[in-house]
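Data card: per-record layout.
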Amino acid sequence: MTQRTVQPPPVQGQGHHPLDVDTMREGARRLLAEDAELPTADELETLTLQLRGHIMLAVPEIETAAGRLPTDDVPRACALACVGEARMRLNLEPGHTLPAGIAHAQRLARSVNALVDHYENLGGGNR
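The structure for this 127-residue chain is written out next.
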């Protein structure tokens, strides 16, 4: 029986840095922690933009790592499904009220957490 080990994503040229998973998780935690304080409208806008940026950075990293796996590989399929869900959430507009904006940002935060999990499972980051 052969043993398959997922290799970390290759360095993609000078200036390429792995995702800062700690910062990404901290941004998500700001909205998802049980004891999280509700953000103000200004804080919410900043958090939403930060989460969108995290997703935009994570998606190509995960696609690259998943693309190196066989097409019938379960972790590949799961990671790519998560990428699809995150992209869909990026295309959604938040509602016009603060609660609707918070709910939207929380969905983005859940996508960030899931993407980071897949990134680490595919060999990225420092574990």
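Known properties of this structure: The chain is about 65% helix and 0% strand. The first helix runs from residue 21 to 32.

See the next section for split statistics.
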